[in-house]
Please model this.
Amino acid sequence: MNNTHEVISALLDNEPFHPEELSDALSDPAGRALLIDLVMLRRIVQPGDPAPAARTATTVSRYSWRVAAAAAALFLSLAGGYIAGQQRAETMSSEAPTATRVVEAESFVPTGGMR
Amino acid sequence: MADPEALYGANHRRLFRYFCRAVGRTEMARDLTQEVFVRMSRTAIPVAQDGDLRGWLFRIARNLVLDHHRSRRRHPEAGPLTSEPMRSASQDVSAAVNEALASLPAIDRDVFVMREVAGLGYEEIAAACELTPDAVRSRLHRTRLLLREQLAAPIATCRTTAMRGATQQTTDD
Model:
């Protein structure tokens, strides 16, 4: 690596350099061309700026919300099922339910079809 | 001990940019960025300064890239990546950059991409690539000169565009 290259690389990489050496390097057209080309090279190698990977914290947070929602849904369905079961058990106990209406047949007369 | 979330949060963008150029595919870069976090959470984070930790993190990243390239050599995908018929000029430049980077030895590509794309310092790159800072400096410079030749056309176009932009701005002022 010659001195021109070295000082231009140091400038590009924020490394310490002697200003006089840089001045000498840039007084040479080849040195100026090198600096410009390396700056342009840096520019063209930058990737476009698509969205980086989703933050894991966000992913974890979303995951936690889903788990919490699923747990809540499971709890509600279990609780609902339990309450419904309790009510059904009450209605299906061995004791006959109290009559709410009584219909009395005055006289039973068959309407045919008997032999 | 460093907090994995904080360490990842401070570096995930750099990692993603590094992966974008090191593997040449955005989707794969996303997956690999996440994979760094998974691997990091499985191991004990060394007690070190921020710069050294970044080097350590990028060593994990570099190993993932090497694994990725090994796997692609074993199972090459059908169809060239650069054959899409309707590409914009910037996509053409990006494809040329990827091609030029892919032609470099892995160590030189990683040193270059870590410096120019991820913005790591010599010490951090040295830690990530298991080199000395002097070796990083020398490889970096050699790679820059090589890429300057290989990418002469896109560099010239970029220079012309930049000059045109600067002239336009001067006229507007």
